[in-house]
Write a structure and sequence with these properties.
Length: about 270
């Protein structure tokens, strides 16, 4: 009798698992770039974390990798979004091919891409002008400083950044740099939109990211995209030995929440 009961319970359990698997919503991202680069590692971290959440919400996330030479072979209908970590030319071509998709730029700082105001290019990585403005603000207070500026730092501790850095380091044995952060953030903002807004189509995702996003990327403020496609965000100041010195917007020079003091604020400036 116990054997029969165990068998019945096992079949019921396996049937529930199979039914749950059949009901899973499949969400796929395309990645174009170097699969050995830190941007890809950040994207993979984002996919891993999305699936940890998705297993409770009936969502399964996957990633397909391509090179810049593969664009014509990519089927746009398979993907919720495209993440690009190559160069400005590829970004422009991907944007033109995937007109109804969010196309995330996670590696190119080129100001001209932001000035073009392409309707579906979303620049997660800070622009060159943002970084230059952050450096200029810091040097107003510290004129003799020897610094570099970037979109992320593995020593950043505030706003739950420490937890993100620890998760990434534990899983990859690497320190998270700005390209890894941008890759992670691209997946995170899209997967959060799937989970919270039930968005599963690329055109709806693009519209929401451009008009309704309030993204917590462990930078201490709700981030959204300018009409240039640039993600509003603070950036980090690093000293000559790689130590974290502070962040911009720089207190005492501008308001610390004035992220539009960094870079091109609007297509209409």
């Amino acid at each position: 009798m116990k054997t029969i009961l165990y068998t019945i319970i096992t079949f019921i359990f396996l049937g529930c698992v199979a039914a749950g698997a059949a009901d899973m919503t499949e969400i796929s991202f395309a990645f174009i770039g170097d699969a050995d680069g830190s941007a890809h590692t950040g994207v993979a971290q984002g996919i891993h974390e999305a699936n940890l959440q998705g297993q409770f919400l009936g969502q399964n996330y996957s990633l397909e990798e391509f090179s810049g030479d593969d664009l014509d072979a990519i089927d746009p209908g398979k993907f919720i979004a495209v993440i690009v970590a190559t160069n400005a030319g590829d970004l422009s071509r991907v944007g033109a091919r995937f007109k109804d998709h969010p196309v995330f730029n996670v590696s190119v700082h080129d100001d001209a891409l932001r000035e073009a105001c392409a309707p579906n290019l979303l620049h997660v990585i800070p622009s060159a002008r943002m970084l230059a403005d952050a450096e200029a603000q810091w040097l107003q207070k510290n004129p003799d400083a020897d610094i570099t500026v970037s979109g992320w730092h593995p020593q950043f501790m505030k706003f739950a950044a420490r937890d993100l850095n620890k998760r990434y380091k534990k899983r990859t044995s690497l320190a998270m740099d700005q390209y890894a952060w941008a890759g992670w953030a691209a997946v995170k903002m899209a997967s959060d939109s799937v989970a919270r807004q039930n968005i599963t189509e690329p055109d709806a995702m693009l519209e929401f990211l451009k008009t309704g996003l309030a993204f917590d990327g462990q930078k201490g403020l709700d981030m959204d995209f300018r009409d240039t496609g640039q993600l509003r965000q603070l950036v980090l100041i690093t000293g000559p030995d790689g130590e974290l010195l502070g962040e911009a917007p720089v207190r005492g020079v501008v308001a610390t929440d004035d992220v539009d003091s960094l870079g091109l604020a609007s297509c209409y400036n």
